Amino acid sequence: MDAQPAIAVAANQLAGSVANNDMSLMGLFGHADIIGQTVIAGLLMISILTWAVIFDKMVKLKKLKGKAEYFEERFWSAGSLDMLYDKIKRPADPMQAVFVAGMKEWRGAQDKGLFLNPASRANVQSRVDRMLQVTIGREMAMVETWMTFLASVGSVAPFIGLFGTVWGIMHSFIGIAQQQNTSLAVVAPGIAESLLATAVGLVAAIPATTAYNKFSTEIGRYGARLDNFANDFMATLSRNLEDARGASATPAGGEGDVAWRRK
User: Fold this and answer.
1) How far is it, in rounded angstroms, from Cα 236 to Cα 262?
2) 3-class secondary structure for 137-193?
3) 3-state DSSP assignment of residue 80
4) Euclidean distance between CA atoms 78 and 71, whole angstroms
5) How far apart are CA 55 and CA 211, in angstroms?
6) For residues 172 and 35, what is the distance between their CA atoms, to the nearest angstrom?
7) Maximum Cα–Cα distance for the chain, whole Å?
């Protein structure tokens, strides 16, 4: 007969302790065990870093678009590619870097007198084209920095949160079995703590996935813009080289004003 009052007292104490639980987010976090707290804290840090990457990408891509438009206007309005090249002390964006790399390779061939030999002109154009493509690849790799991180967060964060939820539920059921009480007041706090990990995982994953899709589209368009610029640049050089073939007998460097004049 003494066992029943003892169980009743224990149940009342348990119900009282549950009622006193803080059901706020901070309260649920504080009541979780070390594994649950580690998962939630890690996901929160990942979420903060994700938003930092998102804002950084937004600003940088906007600047890249503006600089590309500005340089394209300078390129098409320049009277001489030599003059435009001489004005660029250091490339400030990928499009300028592509232009500088192509001009540097072309000028090197010009200084060596390779344009005087008709057989070597095609090789020079091929080398310049390869240099443009290599530069585009290098610059695009820098533009795509942190994109792998966003993709990884979008795909992995929900599973990390799910692990925290599974661990929390398992821990809660073990505690319920030890207390031998299955009332909703006893079960609810542990389940809420467990689901908090999933919620935080989704908070990190949803913005990362959305931003990755958006930035991938914008970066793809920017890469196509660089490819189009490289093609236009090569076409301009080819036209000027055709016009300069009549002056191929002049000394090396003497055809500069003809070969680089903008159309």
Assistant:
1) 8
2) HHHHHHHCCCHHHHHHHHHHHHHHHHHHHHHHHHHHHHHHHHHCCCCHHHHHHHHHH
3) strand
4) 10
5) 10
6) 13
7) 119
Helix (H) or strand (E) holding 91: none
73: three-class secondary structure by DSSP = helix
pLDDT digits (tens, 9 = 90+) for 9-30: 444 444 444 445 677 878 788 7
Dihedral sign for Cα atoms in the order 79, 80, 86, 88: positive
Q: Which residues of 38-61 are buried (b: 16+ CB within 10 A; e: fewer)?
A: ebbebbeebbeebeebbeebeeeb
SS3 261: strand
CA 10 from centre of chain? 55
AA letter at 76: W
Strand ranges in the chain using DSSP code E only, listed in sequence order: none
Question: For the segment 216-257, what is each residue's pLDDT rounded down to a tens digit?
Answer: 999 999 999 999 999 999 999 888 777 666 555 444 444 444
Q: What is the CA radius of gyration of the chain?
A: 32
